[in-house]
Amino acid sequence: MPREKPFEVNIEKFYKYKAVDIMLFAWVSCLEKNLPAVNQTKAIENFLAWMGLSEDDYPLDSAKVTYSKMKKDYLWRK
Known about the structure:
The protein is mostly helical. 60% of the residues lie in helices and 0% in strands.
């Protein structure tokens, strides 16, 4: 039987988030890793603009909290 992979440890928690939250997490973490000059707020604003989401659809503060929680729980590579 294959060994459990490190990223599979919390996979059940990962699926409690909505698809847009998961996309936000992937988008912002990729920008933070590959373009360090882009700060978290700017990366989130960039994602929301790309998705065509307004402040009423997905408030910036809510997106920041969601991203921070997901980063703490799931970003196993630094």
